[in-house]
Amino acid sequence: MVNSINFLLLFSLLVFAPFCHCKKKVGGYLYPQFYDDSCPKVEEIVKSIVAKAVTKEPRMAASLLRLHFHDCFVKGCDASVLLDSSGTIISEKRSNPNRNSARGFEVIDEIKSALEKECPHTVSCADILTLAARDSTVLTGGPSWGVPLGRRDSLGASISGSNNNIPAPNNTFQTILTKFKLKGLNIVDLVALSGSHTIGDSRCTSFRQRLYNQTGNGKSDFTLDQNYAAQLRTQCPRSGGDQNLFVLDFVTPVKFDNYYFQNLLANKGLLSSDEILLTKNQVSAALVKKYAESNDLFFEQFAKSMVRLGNITPLTGSRGEIRKHCRKINT
Ligand code: HEM
Q1: Ligand 1 center to 66 CA (angstroms)
Q2: Would you say 197 is a known binding-site residue?
Q3: How far is CA 308 from CA 171, 188, 190, 204, 312, in A?
């Protein structure tokens, strides 16, 4: 039965693909049943290792979710973020958004090694990242969705892509929106996916400017609640303490819910890039209010936007490779 469904799916893809204008939009042929025959336990294995890691350290859910984002915004969702430097490869781990910040690589290694035992040379590191992002969301209380699969892994990395494509917390609203649009995502995706900041941490260095000198006049950001700012200043001094950690959602820091949006309405978003969703654009402000009011609407859109994020220019067919180790290309 499963086999005939797969056959039908493949048949219709082959027959109708030439007439389908959707190829570019969805970024290749990914589908949730991709490993049904070749590695039927893939989802179970990924989930159990992510669950173990999140039980050990709740923040890991956030770190894995972010890793998928930082992968997809650079050369597409191709696991380029996982490569270490070697030979001609300069690792994206050294880029400004990732240095001293991106984490979760050991968990991905553990998943990969379990999958290589179960079904050697079959599951890509890019698909592992995508599944781990979904599982992290579910494990912290967020929505679930079917993950289209079939990505392959890159043969290289791009540190310049990592520096330039991934939005910075002090970018303007327009710059951030442009960076999303360049990846085929829209303002709805921007607001919904920013809701990821309902879990996880930020370093002092990522928002210090807001506390001391937002516009260069030596004053703090007036869109940040002044009591909250004073509290943050005690742990994030004018100089030093760069790596000190702060929760992104101070109400429910390890629970995936819509408090992120409620916090924005109370002027208690941590990053400048968070608060400007409310203060710099009417369309995004309306979305912030909508998601603050309805957890269901947020969850529904988040799931859709995560699929769109995961569909950014994947390598499919015979492009790229299935890496044996996620940190290096096959030799
Ligand atoms: C809209 C533009 C975005 C900007 C400017 C931004 C920026 C940041 C920054 C500066 C941090 C803290 C990093 C640190 O200080 O070490 C962070 C953390 C995080 N970001 Fe974003 N982000 C954006 C969008 C996203 C998206 C789309 C996702 C996921 C789909 C995401 C998921 C996360 C998560 C989960 C964390 C916490 C990570 C951890 O605790 O390890 N962010 N982000």
Answers
A1: 6
A2: yes
A3: 23, 11, 11, 31, 7
Q: Where in the chain is the domain with CATH 1.10.420.10?
A: 173-308
Place of tokens 């710099």: 280
Ligand 1: does its nearest atom lie under 6 Å from the Cβ of 197? yes
Residues in the chain: 331
**CATH architecture for segment(s) 28-166:** Orthogonal Bundle (1.10)
User: pLDDT tens digit string along 201-259?
Assistant: 999 999 999 999 888 888 899 999 999 999 999 999 999 999 999 999 999 999 999 99
* Homologous superfamily of the 173-308 domain (CATH): Peroxidase, domain 2 (1.10.420.10)
The residue whose two tokens read 């049904």 is 36
Burial class (CB in 10 A: 0-12, 13-18, 19+), 157: buried
167 lines ligand 1 (CB under 6 A): yes
CA of 204 to the centre of ligand 1 (A): 13
The pTM of the whole model exceeds 0.85: yes
- Residue 252 marked as a ligand binder: yes
- Residue intervals in the chain for CATH 1.10.520.10: 28-166
Q: Among 196, 270, 311, which is best to mutate for testing ligand 1, by the most ligand atoms less than 8 A from CB?
A: 196
Is the beta carbon of 194 within 6 A of some atom in ligand 1?
A: yes
121 is catalytic: no
